[in-house]
Sequence to fold (585 residues):
Amino acid sequence: MTPRPESTVASAAASPAASPAVELRGITKEYPGTLANDRVDLTVARGEIHALMGENGAGKSTLMSVLYGLQRPDAGQILLDGREVTFASPSEAIAAGLGMVHQSFKLFPSFTVAENVVYAAEPRRFGLTDRAEALRRVGALADEHGLAVDPAAKVGDLPVGVRQRVEILKLLYRGARTLILDEPTAVLTPAEADGLFGVLRSLADDGRTVLLVTHKLREVMEGSDAVTVLRDGRVAARMRTADTTADGIATAMTGRAVELDRVHPAGAPGGEVLLVDSLSTERVREVSLSVRAGEIVGIAGVAGNGQSELVEAIAGLRPLSCGRVTLSGQDITDASAARRRAAGLAYVPEDRVAVGTAPAATIAENLAMGHHRGHGLLRPSWLREHARVLIDRFGIKAASSRHTAGSLSGGNLQKLVIGRELAHESPLLIVEQPTRGVDIGAIQTIHDQLIAHRDAGHAILLVSAELSEIRGLSDRVLVMYEGRVAAEYAREDADERTLGLAMAGGSLPEAAPAGAAQAAGPQGDAAADAALPAPGAEAATAAAIATAVTDQTDGASPAAAPPSGAADPPPRESDDRPAPVKEAP
Fold:
């Protein structure tokens, strides 16, 4: 990431009398049994990139919900440019100059960039949408802010990093002066993340304000101007980024010393536990891999390149079009998900809400799921004790195990799912995005538990968008691109640059797949073919991919982009989706 220029916020800070862009005074928000925000003060200067950090349950999401009009505070004031405001809805916040980019993009894949950007605010001519004017305005806006994107391109055909630019264009088109970004780099390659921060810095230099909610300390240290840390609903620290360290921020977040970016010792692999032979399904093409006892095999790749579909097929949640899956010597290709779990497969899904938990059930009931098989009814005393042990072991913040799982913050819900699956002591654990949305202290706990699980002789197949996590935990690393295993690396060869290149569809000439010699059966030839540059990537040299900042992954295949969600407010009245765009005469 490009280092932060020292004089970036000079213009914003030059006049002490200038009103802050955003000021929250004494914000208090309480839910039944939980004081989410306790008299929180937050001041964000104009032209500043301000990071908001804190552990899960610290109150970050609640505070941003209050600022953006999703929640009403119980007490406190919101001031924008020195003027007190109240918001009953996000549409009122947008009208006041606020904009928010959510973790899940709110775009229509079948619509063009311009149609998404101008949705609900289209230029009109003779009562109809003026398509030509929409294209012109969006193109000019993109050029003005250095957001390289084709306004006529269909969003569903764009890579993830470019889709994020479309989200930013939506905010700028609506006149946003303050941009809130929630975990903006969770689905980006390292180069795309660098490109995003280049855009944010340019916006800040133009006088806009950026409020960044993230768990990534490196990005905060290199890309922000100021940091506010929340702990247990209160402000624990305020600091200029240049005056602190990553360790200092981590300590403020957790209240204790945290060891950052540890690379754990390598495992001692034993016999083969999982064998996948020429597996194909939706977005996955003839993937072969193996995982041994006492080994963590990591799968890296930009979201949408088949990682999720692969592990869902292995777990029995997605049908195979061809291939074979063997677990501990038993062919489970045609087995149901329940039979696979009974055969020794534990699974932490990416979607912890819809797939990983029953939000309406209690925390204790969710932690006991799977343990009832073969044991009949579980005693309430056992449920309580089992929940207490796992809550303590994983630091799940919950007032009571009798509360519903849906009452937990996202990070605490993730700790619940991981704790439950580890407690099964299954021979194979498949885990997707184990620390997404999880705070620094919990990341260390989860990583330690995964390593202990491996060292106890279990096999782990890990999918993560965090390269530091892949590199720190994995004994071998596979990179998926366009549904194939594009490269395989030994632990010592999996540096960030090499993995980033492979994720973008490029490859280093000297980087041969580490598992080629030991790959089972058809994996050898397939891996050799997959290691070649993918279609559409031939024009990008290794040096260009490694050094480009904003645009080096724009040529990635459309297959690398997952479907997007619904559109942002304001919605059309009595209409759930945009009407077809009509040409003006």
Q: What stands out?
A: Residues 358 and 366 are 7 Å apart (CA to CA). The first strand starts at residue 22 and ends at 31. Residues 5-17, 508-585 have pLDDT under 50 and may be disordered. Residues 98-176 form one domain.
